[in-house]
Structures are given as C-alpha cells and as structure tokens.
Amino acid sequence: MTYRCLCYFILAIFLAACAGEVTDTPQPTAGRITATLAPTRAIATSSAASPTPLAPTVQPGIAIPSPDPTLPPALTTPSLPTATLMPLAPTPTPPGLVFPAAASFAIHQARLHPEQVVSDFSLLPHYVISATLTPPRLWGQMRLSLTNTGETALGDVVLRLYGNGQSMYTGSRMAASNPRVAGQVVQSQMEAAGTALRVFLPVPLEPGEQVKITLDFETEVAADSFRGYGIQQIAHGIGVFGSPFPLLALRDEGVWRVPAIPRVGDAASSPVALWDLFLEVSSDLTLVSSGETMEVTGTLNHVVTGPARDVALVTMAAGATPIELSVSGTQLRYWPATYVRGESFPARDAATVAAAAIQT
Prior knowledge:
Blueprint: H1 2-17, H2 105-110, E1 126-134, E2 137-147, E3 154-160, E4 173-181, E5 184-185, E6 188-191, E7 196-205, E8 210-220, E9 232-235, E10 238-242, E11 247-248, E12 250-252, E13 255-257, E14 274-281, E15 285-289, E16 292-297, E17 300-304, E18 312-317, E19 323-327, E20 330-334, H3 347-359
Parallel strand pairs: 1-14
Antiparallel strand pairs: 1-2, 2-8, 3-7, 3-11, 4-5, 4-8, 6-7, 9-10, 10-18, 12-13, 14-17, 15-18, 16-17, 19-20
C-alpha cells in the first residue's frame, strides 16, 4: 500500500504544480504534463555558478536507502529544528553571485496548451533557482522578480517556507537567509512558527514597478516520513521534494495571507509564476520535475515550467524510465517507482487510471 500511495503521489504533485490558473486566461481543454531528462529543445544559457552550501544547522548524515526488492529496514529520522530567526543586522553580500540566463517568455509560453494565452508574462512573478540537489539536501540561491500589480505601494514581501510546517511536512526543515535587493542585504524576520519570511524592502515598491529579491536557501527532507502524504521524504531510494523553495505568499485586499499550514489537503498556496530551475544533480540519479527539462549539460539540468503556482522534484535511481501516454493531446508521463514490494505492481494500469482522470 505504501508503494501504491507513493506512485500516485509522484503523479499527483506534477498535476497539482502545473495546474495553476492564470488570471484573464482562457482555461484549456487539456494541459501539458511533462517531466523528462531528455532535452527536447536546446537553448543558450550561461554557465551556472556553483552553489555554495549553507552552513549546516542540522545533524548530518541522513542515509538514503538503495532500491531493494524487499522492504528495507526502518530509518531513524533525526531531530530537526523547525526554523531559525533571521538576523535583522545586515551581513556581507556573498561575492560572485551570478544567476544563469533565464529562458525567454516565448519558451515559457510554449510550455502551455495552445489554447492558453497570457497577455503579459512580465507581470507574473519569476523565480530563477541555482541549486544543488543531493538527497536529502537541496541548497542554493533564488532570485524572485516581482512586479507590483496592485494599487498601493508594497513595503514588504512575504515568502512561505512550507517545509517547516510540521503538521504536514513532518521532520523536514527549510532555512532562508541573506535576502538582498540590488545587491544589498535587507532586513527580514521569521513569522508564523517559521513558515513565513517577511522581507522588508528598502524603498516602497510602487504600482507597476518591479523588484528583484535574491536569497540563500536550504531544504532538508526527512527519511521515511510518510505522514502528510510523503510530500517531503526519502524512502526506498526515492527522494520527494514537494514545495522545496521559498514561495511567494498570496496577497488579498492589501494584506499578505499567511494561514496556518493544514494537516491534509493542498497545503501550498502561491500566485501563478514562471520558474527557471538550474539544478546540479548527480549522474547516478534521475531527476523528475514539474515543467520540462530543456537542457542537460553534464550534471546541470535546466527546467522550465511555464506558468505554474508551485513545483516539485523527485529523484530516482539512474536509468528510471516513464510510461508515456497521449491523452486528448496531452502528453502524460507516469514514473513508476523502482521499489517493488512482493509482486510486480501493475504500473501501466496506474498510468491508465491517471489518463482516465485527465479525461474526466
């Protein structure tokens, strides 16, 4: 049963991450669901700067079990802190922080169904991530480009750290530090039991203006944490990183909304945005992600999502291959887990069920 749930969850996180609604955009009759390592289109990018790991604040050495045809022994989840308060005093800006060139808006548009139209991509939040993924850790830098589409000036920006929500992301940990605007460290403070980081802008952001916020982040997921649907966990050689990056909070009626993270359901709430992920992943792992892998250079994977409200990452053993189905013009890739308990699980049957769900 654990394996069956894990298979369904891997599929579900991609459906959820790619299903964000774009304001003033006609709803498609079918969306595109893609996640592949094979580059379908090469684009020119600059070399990604090697991410510098944040200073570890947790116990090292969470073991990653190898795929095994029998149930592996239970792993011990270390005690992890839920959050660390951010210092308000400025700290030196890390030298040499250079982000790779993001994909063009045209490439993001191509990730959508032909019937979907976005009037102005520049108004969408845009995340550019430069990070290293070595389960159970994911660390690096993030740049968020944010345009004030409201009617009043913004004095601060709130990011959610869902991995610290212990009601659902049991045993995981997220940290964010050194928020910067125009290269200068700005004040910030942790709120909502470590699940929200409020970044204070040095100058109010007027309507129509854009700000770029950069910060360092680190996410460490727990081992064998099957509570909360296993949204963040390492089990049976598979790493699941749901909502692994700091996410822009929703803003309504001039207020950043920071609700408590629920125990069930869809925990992450964030505006639809564009994502460019530049992820260093070991060659002995297969990366499965929201969006589409546009280019692989050595161990560097460039993933582009098009408009999406969240992303999820999964690591599997090298050589993992998906079951591919075409459903009413939608390309469905179902990635069966390599771990099998007892008899072989009918993965193609599960893929067929997923295909039927798309048609419903």
